[in-house]
């Protein structure tokens, strides 16, 4: 069982995006799964209430005041008007920044879970849901951190069709793609596509999952490739060996679904040797039938 402080990487198995609405947001439809790789948060009792960031990608984060972890802490404590013993937060940053796998959102969600536990707050409280939505579209699903169908602005979660664990490889070319830029590029395409995915068949096997996902899309993939052409190279490399290769979120992280854990590890090892400048991880995306 994952700890409350584990901030799992979020993977959009598909991501359908609607046109910009009058509220300034794009409606989405997405199937989200979570990997067994991620960041790690912990509370540090009795110390100055600061944020200490360590790990491979610590230097890429902005000022602590702009960090979603700090915003989550401050808004949660203010909303509940709750005092707690002094504590700091330690963030071990293992996931690339601005990479389409919800790193910052997962970190904020982990902070909400940890601090709610410390202060005796219920995560089901409407105030927590409101804070999560205000912090970002991916934060509500990252609080749940389990496979979900996501709709609206990200606040509407529903159980997905049952599907098995999915061995996968995650590859990021270490080039950030900022969400706002990807959506601006998407708007320029003026696409008009159906938001809802096709009706899924029984998804009891990897082959069935791949067939169904193949009829779905990531509508931000083409805009992200236009912004960072190296993404096309990542997709081509994954697609040569994996059953399905696709961008997650707004990128630049891509995933490839593999036949087995051993196949995923072998592919990750091969890509890591070929491209040591890329971030590559073998993982398992937790299914909804386990």
Notes on the protein architecture:
Helix 1 packs antiparallel against helix 3 (126-135). The model has no long low-confidence stretch (mean pLDDT 93). The chain is of the alpha+beta class. The chain has helices at 68-80, 103-119, 126-135, 139-144, 179-189, 206-214, 221-227, 230-239, 261-274, and strands at residues 6-17, 28-45, 51-54, 87-92, 148-152, 156-158, 166-172, 244-247, 254-257, 279-285. It contains 9 helices and 10 strands. Strands 1, 2, 3, 4, 5 and 6 form a 6-stranded mixed β-sheet that branches. It has a 4-stranded antiparallel β-sheet with strand order 8-9-7-10, with helices on both faces. It is 33% helix and 24% strand.
Task: Please give the structural blueprint.
Layout: E1 6-17, E2 28-45, E3 51-54, H1 68-80, E4 87-92, H2 103-119, H3 126-135, H4 139-144, E5 148-152, E6 156-158, E7 166-172, H5 179-189, H6 206-214, H7 221-227, H8 230-239, E8 244-247, E9 254-257, H9 261-274, E10 279-285
Parallel strand pairs: 3-4
Antiparallel strand pairs: 1-2, 2-4, 2-5, 5-6, 7-9, 7-10, 8-9
């Amino acid at each position: 069982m994952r700890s409350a402080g584990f901030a799992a990487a979020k993977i959009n198995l598909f991501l359908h995006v609607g046109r910009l609405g009058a509220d300034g947001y794009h409606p989405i439809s997405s199937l989200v799964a979570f990997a067994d790789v991620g960041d790690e948060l912990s509370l540090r009792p009795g110390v100055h209430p600061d944020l200490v960031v360590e790990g491979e990608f610590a230097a890429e984060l902005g000022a602590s005041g702009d960090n979603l972890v700090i915003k989550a802490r401050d808004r949660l404590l203010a909303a509940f008007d709750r005092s707690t013993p002094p504590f700091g937060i330690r963030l071990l940053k293992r996931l690339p920044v601005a990479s389409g796998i919800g790193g910052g959102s997962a970190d904020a969600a982990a902070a909400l879970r940890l601090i709610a536990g410390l202060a005796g707050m219920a995560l089901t409280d409407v105030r927590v849901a409101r804070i999560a939505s205000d912090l970002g579209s991916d934060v509500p699903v990252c609080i749940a951190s389990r496979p979900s169908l996501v709709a609206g602005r990200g606040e509407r979660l529903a159980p997905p069709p049952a599907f098995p664990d999915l061995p996968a490889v995650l590859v990021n070319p270490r080039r950030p793609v900022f969400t706002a830029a990807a959506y601006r590029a998407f708007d320029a395409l003026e696409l008009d596509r159906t938001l809802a995915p096709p009706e899924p068949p029984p998804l009891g096997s990897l082959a069935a999952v791949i067939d169904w996902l193949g009829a779905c899309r990531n509508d931000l993939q083409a805009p992200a490739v236009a912004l960072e052409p190296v993404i096309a190279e990542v997709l081509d490399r994954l697609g040569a060996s994996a059953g399905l290769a696709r961008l997650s979120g707004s990128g630049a992280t891509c995933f490839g679904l593999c036949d087995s854990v051993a196949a995923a590890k072998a592919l990750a090892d091969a890509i890591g040797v070929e491209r040591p400048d890329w971030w590559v991880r073998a993982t398992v995306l937790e299914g909804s039938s386990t």
